[in-house]
Write a structure and sequence with these properties.
Elements: H1 23-32, E1 47-53, E2 56-61, H2 64-73, E3 78-79, H3 82-92, H4 101-111, H5 117-122, H6 124-141, E4 148-152, H7 153-169, H8 178-190, H9 192-200, H10 212-235, H11 244-250, H12 262-275, H13 278-293, H14 295-308, H15 323-335, E5 342-346, E6 350-352, E7 355-357, E8 363-365, H16 367-370, H17 390-394, H18 414-431, E9 432-435, E10 444-447, E11 449-452, E12 457-462
Helix pairs in contact: 1-9, 3-9, 6-7, 6-18, 7-13, 8-10, 10-12, 13-14, 13-15, 13-18, 14-15, 14-18
The structure holds protoporphyrin IX containing FE.
The site of protoporphyrin IX containing FE (HEM) has 23 residues, from helix 12, helix 13 and helix 18.
């Protein structure tokens, strides 16, 4: 189905800065929105080098072949950047996302089985139950059937995806105070631009910034709550449970046969709790925003779900047939990739597209700019899910579209996230209509994940034909 006859939608984007900015202006802009420091050349040149502030070089890689070289062919010659570690370490320590080399490899091997396609599909009932719960919350908030209520969709999606991750990853071990964990995670992320700005300017990490003490407290609170989950599980001697935590507790180092240290257990659980819900929540919030701006795509999804699923609960066998739903999610993740920038640094000096890069010097792969690159996409800022029609998608280079990254460090939860996004989106659009107020133009702001500035207020109207809430199948009951 084509949307060619309908008015094209150009949703909010960013105006790149003039470079170089002075150091103070760079700091200010970076603190407000690190993504808004990506220069114009990153949207128009294959590989470019600029000084974001005087004296600091940043290399932006946007060419699919060069990306393939860094992420895939020569992956073993690169590491995560010290800046990323500086950003993440206080919360997720040296877990699978923030370690390198042998430390990374064995943790990845340990966790990978949990994200096999068969495992992921077994989580569909828990995902559908989380979607139903969110719909029930909307239903409770509506004063009369069919009445529109404005909701902060960003917060709602965070709640829904957090429920999914807790139920699928921590059977029976959910933290007692879910809100405290979420609040601590949010508070930590809010202060990250300062860490980024200081790191980019090579300022020492002990140098105070306005959010430093609040952020330290948030990191400590988050890790304390995660450690409490592990203690709780041990106290109930339920380590044999075949969920993530059970597997982590049973895991042994293939070389030394040593168990994961308590610190590494906390690191990986924190990683999966945070990486496993924040990103998908943001992807769904942006998707619903685009659907509110393009109601005909809502209608198409609604018709598809009605034809494929009817009014029964969404099951794993339906997913392959939800093609329109999938196209919309993919296009939303093109325009608003939940993880908008990746960085790497070579372990020894390398040549990248003619640039001599010293060992330890960072290079950046701005997924946000790659997905809107003038050389790679036709009319890049236009919302057009038909870009992902099978024959058109097949013509894309694999590093031209990479919301989940690429190479050996590709997102561990990519399949999980796609299945979850499909189940949740299909359930929500079947049950409700999402309306834009005609005014809110949220700037995409990077807080590691891609936030909508000013939140994502949308009108939610539950539709009469929405199915009644099926019996609760929560896994942590
Ligand atoms: C829309 C949702 C998601 C997006 C856009 C996303 C994006 C990404 C990206 C771009 C990376 C690569 C970072 C790099 O190479 O520097 C990554 C890594 C990772 N993601 Fe996701 N992610 C999503 C959902 C999830 C979920 C649901 C989980 C777990 C349940 C997860 C767990 C991880 C982990 C553990 C890594 C580190 C992998 C490694 O370094 O080996 N992500 N993600």
């Amino acid at each position: 189905m084509s949307n060619a006859s309908l008015a094209p939608l150009y949703p909010p984007t960013l105006t790149p800065p003039e470079v170089p900015l002075g150091t103070l202006r760079f700091l200010k802009r970076c603190a407000e929105n690190p993504l808004a420091t990506i220069p114009a050349c990153a949207y128009s040149e294959p590989v470019s080098s600029v000084e974001p502030a005087r004296g600091f070089r940043a290399i932006w890689i946007c060419d699919p072949d060069v990306l393939e070289q860094v992420l895939v062919r020569d992956a073993g010659r690169y590491r995560k950047t010290p800046l990323e570690l500086r950003v993440f370490a206080p919360v997720i320590g040296k877990g699978v996302l923030s370690s390198d080399g042998a430390d990374w490899r064995w943790q990845r091997r340990l966790l990978a089985p949990l994200f096999r396609p068969s495992e992921v599909l077994s989580y569909v009932p828990a995902m559908a139950a989380a979607a139903d719960e969110q719909i029930a919350r909307w239903r409770e908030a509506a004063h009369a059937p069919g009445q529109a209520v404005r909701h902060c969709i960003e917060a709602d999606m965070t709640l829904a995806t957090y429920a999914v991750i807790v139920r699928t990853m921590l059977f029976g071990g959910a933290p007692k105070d879910v809100n405290a964990v979420m609040a601590a995670g949010k508070s930590y992320l809010e202060a990250i631009p300062w860490v980024l700005a200081y790191g980019l300017l090579n300022l020492p990490s002990w140098l105070p910034h306005p959010a430093m003490f609040k952020q330290r407290r948030a990191a400590k609170a988050f890790r304390k709550s995660v450690a409490a989950i592990i203690e709780d599980r041990r106290a109930r001697s339920a380590s044999a449970a075949d969920d993530l935590l059970g597997r982590l507790l049973a895991a042994r180092d293939p070389e030394t046969d040593a168990p994961l240290t308590d610190a590494l257990l906390v690191d990986n659980l924190a990683t999966l709790l945070e990486a496993g819900h924040e990103t998908t929540a943001k992807a769904l919030a942006w998707t619903l925003y685009l659907l509110a701006r393009a109601p005909h795509w809502q209608d198409l999804i609604r018709a598809e779900v009605a034809a494929v699923v009817g009014t029964s609960r969404i099951e794993a066998r339906h997913l392959d047939q939800l093609a329109v739903t999938e196209r919309v999610i993919k296009e939303a993740m093109r325009l608003y990739p939940a993880a908008p920038v990746m960085g790497r640094t070579p372990t020894e000096a390398v040549d990248i597209a003619g640039y001599h890069v010293k060992a330890g010097e960072p290079v950046y792969m701005p997924i946000y700019a790659i997905h809107r690159h003038k050389l790679l996409w036709d009319d890049p800022n236009r919302f057009d899910p038909d870009r992902f029609l099978p024959e058109r998608e097949a013509a894309l280079k694999r590093t031209q579209y990479m919301p989940f990254g690429g190479g050996p460090r590709i997102c561990l939860g990519a399949a999980f996230a796609m299945v979850e996004a499909k189940v949740l989106l299909a359930s929500f659009v079947r049950a409700a209509r999402f309306d834009w107020d005609g005014q809110h133009l949220p700037e995409p702001v990077s807080r590691v994940t891609l936030h909508p500035k000013g939140g994502m207020p949308l009108g939610v109207t539950l539709l009469d034909e929405a199915p009644t809430r099926p019996p609760n199948v929560l896994l942590n009951s």
